[in-house]
Automatic annotation (TrEMBL):
Protein name: Oxidoreductase
Coiled coil: none
Key words of the record: 3Fe-4S, Iron, Iron-sulfur, Metal-binding, Oxidoreductase
Any Pfam family the entry gives: Oxidored_q6
GO molecular function: 3 iron, 4 sulfur cluster binding; oxidoreductase activity
Cofactor or coenzyme needed: [3Fe-4S] cluster
Sequence ranges assigned to domain NADH:ubiquinone oxidoreductase-like 20kDa subunit in this UniProt record: 17-154
Protein species of origin: Immundisolibacter cernigliae
InterPro entries: Hydrogenase_assoc-protein, NADH_UbQ_OxRdtase-like_20kDa, NiFe_Hase_small_N_sf
Length: 261
């Protein structure tokens, strides 16, 4: 009697630094258990073995920044029963979405000796702007624990148990004093989704918002506190424009503090 076929997993890369794929490789012992539960059919970062689709689960890292990317993600979607975006680039356009605020053609002229060789769209956009996405896993990079929970849940056919609360709850859980209240350190923790373990506040630094906006954030209220602490509006706008600059909750709040023409 033949053993039942294992679910087929594919891992895809678009515009990104590969950090989220490395988080998967960093699972080490746990990755062996994952590999035992699925058939890793395509994962170029880890293996030259590349099997054709269809795939049961596709993990997609990176944002859409070229016309070729835009066509390729349609093909990935067509081959995938479930498509999961992993990381700030795939879920919000990534740090490269800062280009959305400027003239990309001017940057190409300044940076490259042959700008006519550069094939690039004017914007960096998340995967969900182009195809249906079944699950999103945030972070820069993603949390190893959340990634394993997501894969285990998909294999078991249940809903992933991934936190949608704020980094503040992680600070309280590990007994870290609030850097914003205790020291007046600017911190995006109250509006940022949990997942990092509040590592920056644990070292007396404010949260940089790597995991993007939490569920129902209130950045306007946080901004009032930061202004009261002496942060000027230009710095406040820059504060929201880092790894998740194009996430609507952060992008809209940053724009609210831009200098008026």
């Amino acid at each position: 009697m033949n053993a039942p076929a294992k679910p087929r997993l594919a891992v895809w890369k678009f515009a990104s630094c590969d950090g989220c794929q490395l988080s998967l490789l960093d699972c080490e012992d746990e990755l062996l258990a994952v590999a035992d539960g699925v058939e890793i059919a395509l994962f170029p970062e880890a293996s030259s073995r590349m099997l054709p689709g269809p795939y049961d689960v596709s993990l997609v890292e990176g944002s859409i920044t070229t016309a070729h990317d835009r066509e390729r993600i349609q093909d990935v979607r067509a081959q995938s029963r479930l498509l999961v975006t992993i990381g700030a680039c795939a879920t919000a356009g990534g740090i490269q979405a800062l280009r959305n605020l400027r003239d990309v053609e001017e940057w190409k002229r300044i940076v490259y000796a042959r700008p006519d060789w550069i094939d690039s769209l004017a914007t960096s956009t998340p995967i969900a702007a182009h195809v249906k996405v079944d699950y999103e896993l945030r972070g820069c990079p993603v949390s190893k624990a959340q990634l394993l929970e997501l894969l285990a849940a998909l294999l078991a056919g249940r809903r992933p148990n991934v936190a949608t609360s704020s980094v503040c709850e992680e600070c309280k859980a590990r007994g870290t004093a609030c850097v914003l209240v205790a020291h007046g350190t600017p911190c995006l923790g109250p509006v940022t989704q949990a997942g990092c373990g509040a590592i920056c506040p644990a070292y007396d630094r404010g949260c940089y918002g790597c995991f993007g906006p939490k569920e129902t954030p209130n950045p306007a209220a946080l901004s009032e506190q930061l202004l009261a602490l002496g942060m000027d509006r230009a710095a406040l706008g820059r504060f929201y424009r880092t790894f998740n600059a194009a996430a609507p909750a952060f992008g809209d709040e940053a724009q609210r503090h831009d200098p008026q023409p």
